[in-house]
Every structure is written in C-alpha cells, then in structure tokens.
Amino acid sequence: MSTYKLTYFNAKGIAESIRMLLSYSGKEFKDIRIEHNDWLKCKSKTPFGQLPILEIDNKVLYQSTAICRYLGEESHLAGKNNWENLQINMMAECFLDFKKHIIDLFFEENKEAKEKKSLEVKNQIIPFYLGRFDRIIQENNGFFALGKLSWFDFYFVGYSETLETIVQEKVCEQFPHISQLRKNIFDIPKVQRWLKKRPSTLY
Hints:
One of its GO terms (biological process) is glutathione metabolic process. This protein is α+β, with helices and mostly antiparallel strands.
C-alpha cells in the first residue's frame, strides 16, 4: 500500500483541495503543517521553494493543480478521453486566472492599495468569474464539467473557504449553484469525516 505525506503551511489554502481529494479517495495521509516562522528553514529543501508538496512512496510531487489532476485521474474523477479532460482543464485554467487576483489582494501590504484592490475584487472580479462559474455549474447538472463530479469540483471547493476569508465576505453564498455544489462536496461522508477532524485555522 502506498504512503502519502502532504506538506503545507498550517492553513487550508491551496492544499485543502488535495486533502479533500485524498480523503475522498480513502487514502490515509500524513498532514504535515509548517508554521511560517519555520518556513525559511525548509524552503531550500523543496523543489521550487514552494508548498504544497505531496510525497507518494517518498517520490516528491509539486504544483497543486498538477497534484489534484493526478489524484483525480487515480480516483476516476477525470475525463474518459482528451476532449473530456479538456473541459475540466479549461475550468482549472479559468480558476487560476481568478485566483491570481485573490492572491494579489492577500499579499498587498500597502493599506490604500489593498483597499482599492479589495473593492475591485468584490465589485468586478468576483461577479465576473463567480457569475460565469455559477452559470456553468447550472448548465452541467450541478458540476463544473461533463455533468458529473470531477477533480476540479474539489479543487474549487477546497479553495473557496480561503477565498472567503481573504475577501472577508461569504461570497459563495451569493451564487446559488456554487453554494449547492459546495454543500454537496462537504456532505460526502469521507470528506465530512476530514472536515470534522481537521485543525481549525483562519485561512
């Protein structure tokens, strides 16, 4: 049986999607959490100076999207052919475009610039992207692609809590189909067990 060790900060962030996918697929994993004060000591030991990393039988994987895609393929949450995988990958690429705006807001240190970015994200970026995502979910039987559950549904839902913490608003609740998808993912028994036992963190 393979061994899994996930290393990330003591936060949900971009690693929560991986944790949910591992839980959904029934894979036991070590959830290694690094405090920010210890990060500089560990940074040089990672392939590209970034987290998360997932070790499977001591083989190191990196880049959260690639990891989620791999776990999805291993758990029958990918497409059956190249065309179907394209539908999922298009959603992932659109989400990465959206997430860049959220990350820029999170790391902005100048108070005035942060306030300006926050207004832009809330008034323009979120309505633009989440509005389109919501419509796509409605058109796909309650999912992001192919009319069925895929790894990207976990990818989006896993990051959605961090998204709401960064913008300081329950934005997903403003979009009924996104809200329902998130509830459906959270209600999956194996995911629910993870949610109950995971550490409580702000992000």
